[in-house]
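Tutorial handout. Part one gives the primary structure; part two gives the three-dimensional structure as tokens.
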Amino acid sequence: MKKHGVAVVGIGAVGTEMLKVLHEREFPAKSVRVFARTARQEEIGGRTYDVEATTHEAFEGVDIALFAGTEGAKGASQQFGWPAVARGCVVIDNGDDFRMDPRVPLVVPEVNAEALRSHQGFISNPNCSTVQMVVALAPLHRAARIRRIVVSSYQAVSGTGRGAIEELQAQVTALQEGREPKAEVYPHRIAFNCFPHIGRQTDEMPGYYTEEVKMRRETRKILGDPEIAVSATCVRVPVFNGHSEAINVQFENKLTASEAREILESAPGVVVIDDPANAKYPMPLHASGTDPVYVGRIRDDVSAPNCLDLWCVSDNIRKGAATNAVQIAEKMIEMGLL
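Part two.
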């Protein structure tokens, strides 16, 4: 198999996981370079990397660049993404700067890999909360066509980055020791608390935060159906890693819970855990450190026709970011696009 020169841009929570995933999945890389703001050495996953300062010239000879792009952070792909493409590099970007750009496929390999055929050298990774939802819903959409989605997400602090993880730990310690915890990353204390605030308020959808707008726009683009109605409420919860979602979905055609369960049990990337009578259902503890999207609590919605309720959990740093990006590169190789 042909081997490729790979670069990972950024070594926060997502970038470090990208490096681990590349090695775990034995990606066919002839070299793996790491770019960041400053040159230095870093030990990641038991390996020492000579981190290079990110420059336009650094992308010479790089075949695939994975931009870690912590959610909401601006800069790296805006500054270096398209210039890297001009140097012959394929960019796979985890940031949100170009997801809705008509030039850029927005891809979850289990769902819409064919969109890669139209790439112009730049591919976007969807938002982590969108990724897990569309992996669960796409097989059902193909079976009965989705008309409307109402989703509430319960999102771990790792989605904000390393600083938020450290803040939650520090706040828990402070409370245990009887000290007043400090809130610096978030507007409120996150330890033993939750708040419906992820991102910033938008003019596009008054009253909604940007995370909620992303779930609407990105779901429509990935599923290729601009008529799907989507309403989201995104909540930050005191969980270190792993996002959870309560999803209510209405279909054009009747789809029973048992039929949906059967479809999902054979769907790529999905693991069904659905035995609520015995307290078996997906939890962040199942998902953290793994790649599947876990689905359970699949049930008929008794309040409306052609509706189902389900519960969906996934590791937002792996499948929601790092693994999905690596899978995009793998799929491009499989399809002869690299």
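Part three, for discussion. The mean pLDDT is 96. Residues 130-315 form a domain with the Dihydrodipicolinate Reductase; domain 2 fold (CATH 3.30.360.10).
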